[in-house]
């Protein structure tokens, strides 16, 4: 069974192996054991509320419980830009027009911006290549929206993701070659690595502070601003389906876009409902396509778990699950769980929206037991 | 004989001919449109006559005449206040040091700042001659006659002077700096922008020019190479001005990145070396050739003469020179060595 | 009866009277007969498609048909920034931090922006003071969303509104006094008037081009950036209820906010449905509170009409109306009309959303006659 | 007798005492921390000995000693390259003209541009004396001894020189320019920023300084009035430097907006008027008081002496002066009139 849970100490080896296989371009998860260990420590501190809420880094592992291996990771950074300065370029427009001469020229510009400061970022998604497909990527990504929804006060109202920008097979970025390299006396990979290590004062020292007029850059560089790497297109489509939109900010190195959404507008959040667990021995066919599955979370802050079940398990008040699934989620019959479709446009029983939930909560007579995992997990 | 005198309305066609012959090769602040040129001559006449409307600062236009034939061979101008009451646009070239202590990196980042720092200085402008006159004594007369005019009317001008030298332009008319920068914002070719600049109010520059500093490293290599470089054909003029004491500073032309020369008015060679003398006759055609100027305002004339310098405050020149200057014995003239 | 229709030639006197009464602060509708006449002409050209679609100015009049008087106006500018340059300040953030010194300073900045260029603006709302209340303001404002929805290809996907910023009873703006007046050698009212007249080259010439660090402005000025004039608060609340959000841009003179929304996300658009007209003699009580009324539009591009009816008139397929209402709308039984609630949270029969419409369109057998007003109005 | 010589490690406590006495009243680039000062003296000793590590450009620290008592009365420094290999930060004051042709409005808008334009020039710095020495001959000796050092070691220094003059600060320690600008970005008081600036790498300035130009009109009126104004107590030093040929240009200190003086090294009065002479004895205590310096590098000494100038290349001074300079008859010294 594949289950989402907080990243924990034993995950280091699997994580390192994944990072090694991922190669370049994933700067938030470099193949560096010390750095990965620090991330694990920080994630553990975060889930156990041993660090400032704003400094939290919520990292989730996808574990294959049959083989006891961690096969994916995804995360939420509670706030960016608090310790190090968080830089983007804002893609803006400068219009110069002279009525006298009948000239009207629009020049896109890149202006340095720290506007994402203090916003929650979804980040660090990585799935072992032998687990790709079958909705595992969706689970790894969307479990975060269930967490965001459940614990909103720990996060900003708006969340964002930085999407990897265009680079070629050799890791060369057209925007870097045309812009960054003129100011930073280093290769793109090196700058990206330094930046990923959180070593950012060099950016304040070396980068251009005045707006960059795009008309002065070569077409090859202009063409990639706000564009994602082709390997990142599926991730972008997934986020767009969730309601994320390009917000005009791009990465200062490769021009990759920043997409953002209000938490309350995220599709998974809007479509999620709560149900009560009904543990049953009645077998259900677990191997159904992603479109016919739902995510089920145990609503726990400290020991958050999510797995998937076939949609027909979800009733109007309950969700039926086997004892094995209940054990993996750490729930019992009568516990409240959150349920949301795994795939957009997937089958979804009953009225969409949170109305279902409200109905339940106004009819407490039907509830047998209700306890919040966020207080005891 | 060569004579420099204020331009008159009846010079219009001759000036148009000279200005037109420059074509795209060598632009200047001299309008090529008849109506605009007529207005410029009219304004110049008023300025020579001493008019000083605060809205219309004095602008002087001189012509170089071959008095034997009556034909004109060149023009030269002085704007008493660069920008003529509007902002005078330049780029100021400066460098920022981008250094990272931690990484041990230090880069010199050149930046072009939009600047009006030279606004209201006295500007030498509109300097054009027929090609065959370039580098001759007449060429020098035309250029330096302006300094003698300034010396004679010192209070009309500022303490600091500037001259814009045309920048690099290829034979085919392409201007590398314009193509790399201005074209993107003005959406027109260099010639059009240059013409508008001499014809229209500067509002269009405020409207179209990129308002933020420009990083030199983002310009094309060709444009970078052209920064502060003079056009090949302006070199004789440039060298003459350098001998006069003008030096290139940090300012560049906004359209072609040509150098802007600067000088303190009172240290210009012609101002320092020229002296007032009392005019006397000479039948001798020996002596050194020098610049000699007389007359105030509209009456200003300047020519070349073989002068024999007899006593301290006197100068002897051929009587023919008296006539050109419209002066006679005992009158005061100003002379400077060539 | 109160009905929305395109502004027309006979409206000049009523318009002028309204503009006179409105006083200062409404720069898009100054009390200037020539200017108002030019606006009427432009609106007529727009509805009759005699001008470039991008140059269109859609101005709607609210007419009291009983007295034959125009008592309100509202508009949509098809695109801004095409003829004159459209300026805003972007309220952005600059973060300066030194880890070595443990210093972290956030400085809000105002950066000149032309980012609204080419976007549709809703504008020019003005209601005669003796007609305020009773939902007339809602009708005047929201009729535009029905129009936007109906003719989307004429407008941008995103639309915005500029909200009037803070000024005191004497028309003094704290932001102007602290910032604009230092660069523009004139009074706020004069600058605002010049700007409203579309005479904007002076802005390019006179205004500061480099970012303004807000920490250098007095508190009185910082406090009003992004804030609306108290008289504008109801309008802001109305737009917020429609789904408009502050987009980070503010007016360069008074700091009033720009709010924006994607057309497809506007509540009136999302909740609007189509029905068929059923003209009936059966009397309905017309005088019901706004919460119990719906807007009904005739869907005509050239002769657009909107009026309100009591919500119970709306059935699952039809909307019942008296011959008088049908005449005002220029419709007959069987014509398709668009219906949307006048007030947010107002009573609304049947499922929300556009589903109702889709159901109809897949069952053409029930339709007696269907003609598009946009082709013959 | 007053002697100017290179600072030595055993001067540490005396220098700290002098630096400390300046308190908040008059800051300088002299660190007030023992460890930092010890490093500075060590670096100075290496520089005098001729070390020239490209990463650590030479920095020289001189002291003024009363040889009768052995006590120190002041310090003065030269940084061979302003910024010492890092960017040297200033604001450059410039004006933009905001003019609307249509509205007939023209405004001069002053802007402060962050600039590193003076980086790598030779910087006079660390000038402090005991209060009772201000304006005396010893004060002049201390300041101008540096020019003689430069004259003797001309190749170690650049062609252009700068000096930062402290700006306006109130008795209560408030610095109006800082309070209106820097405080908002550095989030510390002026004293802290000033100290960090002399102790730390300039990374913190790159990190915290607002990167965009500042509009002067948005500064407080008090800060605007302080632009380019010297601190009251620096006036004697300022006047001495002006006599030397330094002039205020367009550059201001980024913290207090004090003026930055500029000069061309080879036109400084002391360099122009000083000459090498052969040393001879004098028993006469008449003659004019002048500056006299001898010795290379670490051996450099400079003092005041009554000199009788006998022949062209000779100078006669009391033998006591020989000892101070560690020179004897026939040696070459450099002298300049006071």
From TrEMBL, chains A, C:
Tell me if Transferase is a UniProt keyword of this record.
yes
GO terms (BP aspect): L-arginine catabolic process
Bias-annotated ranges (Basic residues): 365-377
Q: Where is this region: Disordered?
A: 341-377
Q: Does the keyword Transferase apply?
A: yes
Q: Which positions carry the signal peptide feature in this UniProt record? A: none
- Give the UniProt keywords, A-Z: Acyltransferase, Arginine metabolism, Transferase
**What are its E.C. numbers?**
2.3.1.109
What is an example of a GO molecular function annotated in this UniProt entry? Answer: arginine N-succinyltransferase activity
Q: Where is the composition biased (Basic and acidic residues)?
A: 354-364
Q: InterPro entries given for it?
A: Acyl_CoA_acyltransferase, Arg_succinylTrfase_AstA/AruG, Arginine_N-succinylTrfase
NCBIfam families recorded for this chain?
arg_catab_AOST, arg_catab_AstA
Please give the name of this protein. Answer: Arginine N-succinyltransferase
Lineage here is: Bacteria, Pseudomonadati, Pseudomonadota, Gammaproteobacteria, Pseudomonadales
Automatic annotation (TrEMBL), chains B, D:
In Swiss-Prot or TrEMBL terms, this protein is called: Arginine N-succinyltransferase
A Pfam cross-reference name? AstA
Question: A single GO molecular function, which one?
Answer: arginine N-succinyltransferase activity
Tell me which NCBIfam families the record gives. arg_catab_AOST (TIGR03243)
Q: Which PANTHER family match?
A: ARGININE N-SUCCINYLTRANSFERASE, N-SUCCINYLARGININE DIHYDROLASE
- Keywords of this entry: Acyltransferase, Arginine metabolism, Transferase
Presence of the UniProt keyword Repeat in the record: no
Can you cite a GO biological process for this protein? L-arginine catabolic process
